[in-house]
Amino acid sequence: MISFVFAVWIGRQLMQLWMPDSKVHELYTAACGLYVCWLTLRACVMIAQWAPLGWDNLVAKITEWFLIVSSCSPT
């Protein structure tokens, strides 16, 4: 229950940043908040898996993923 309420709160905050004057359905705020929570948790798990490699390899992995993501962006 607490995790769902927290996810909806995060979703409301994000939706308010994107669309400050409009009324957004609760399902959209819940979906947005759950996705952000999942994405944050996934990033923490990936960093925790890479942490035993050492700081140099951790920075190299983050740089490698940053380059991959930036090369896929449409801009």
> What Rg do the Cα atoms give?
16 Å
Shape: elongated
User: What order do the helices and strands follow?
Assistant: HHH
Residue runs with pLDDT of under 50 for 5 or more positions: none
Number of strands: 0
Helical content stands at: over 70%
Q: Give the class from helix and strand content and strand pairing.
A: mainly alpha
Taking the sheet with the most strands, its summary is: none
Detailed description of the structure:
This protein has 75 residues and is mainly alpha-helical. The protein has one domain (2-72). 80% of the residues lie in helices and 0% in strands. The chain has helices spanning 2-18, 26-50, 55-72. The radius of gyration is 16 Å and the shape is elongated.
List keywords for this structure.
75 residues; elongated; 80% helix; 3 helices; mainly alpha
